[in-house]
Amino acid sequence: MAYCPECGAKNEDGAKFCGSCGKALDALPAAALPERKGFPFAVVIALVLVVAVAVVAFAVWQGRKNNPEALAKSLVASVKENNPEKAAKLCANDSEFITEAINAGLTMAEDTTFAYKVVEHHKQKVDVELVTEEGDCICTIGLEKNNGKWAAAWADASAAMFQGNPHRTGVFSSREIEQLPRVKWWFRTEERVVSLPVISGDTVYFGTGDGCRLIALDSKTGQEKWRFKTEGCIYSTPAIAGGTVYFGDEDGYLYALDSKTGQEKWRFKTGDSWISSPAIAGGTVYFGCNWRLLCPG
Fold first, then answer.
1. More exposed terminus of the chain, fewer Cβ within 10 Å: N or C?
2. Of the candidates 133, 157, 181, which is a domain's last residue?
3. 39: which residues sit within 8 A by CB, 6+ positions away?
4. Where a domain ends, among 157, 182, 215?
């Protein structure tokens, strides 16, 4: 088609004159229709991808900010900073009880840095254990998820010693028992056992009276790991910290053994005939004997 430059009428290609006004034509081709301008498809795709990446990044950031390990670290930091307001925001229940338990665990530890071990019991319930370089768990923080956010529900600073802590409270916090306990294994000592068993990591430690031995068993199988012979009967309950087992015997010695091998590290002679169950706090061992309190360090 050709348009008349005079009147703009359409004419067949090759026409010499405009059929409307008679104007001579130069057989100009019809002007192409203007291209419709819209939002480029590539730009739309790019914007969608940018928004998707931003949403994912925000979700990851929120997840890292409110995951069990991160929350436990923030809670421990608030206890170290003595910031009860910050701690209260991270707790679902009594924050004072929880912070006191964490502080007790920190007091008993010799280390200032810990590994945070997450133990999942349920999608909505996990425990975070504060573990030292020697593998000792100094504190457990129980976390529960409510409305998509984790919060501390309880904490327990029970240590591997008599009554669970230096204060001898005998109070333990833990998850509810989901099924009735049953016998998994038993170990026959052939000797009288007066010392209470203590569990640290995957090992059970206890002493015998008649045989004068400290025995270490695998907590999962009941298999003996090692035993150590002493000079006197063992009535005290062992205490374990920093990879060392501390206990006393009837002959008045306080022993320190390697918790993994049972090898003797040192012994301390008191000169008395009876030693209580040792307690450990802040890198010091405390024990009593015949009306005296001793702390060899």
1. C
2. 157
3. none
4. 157
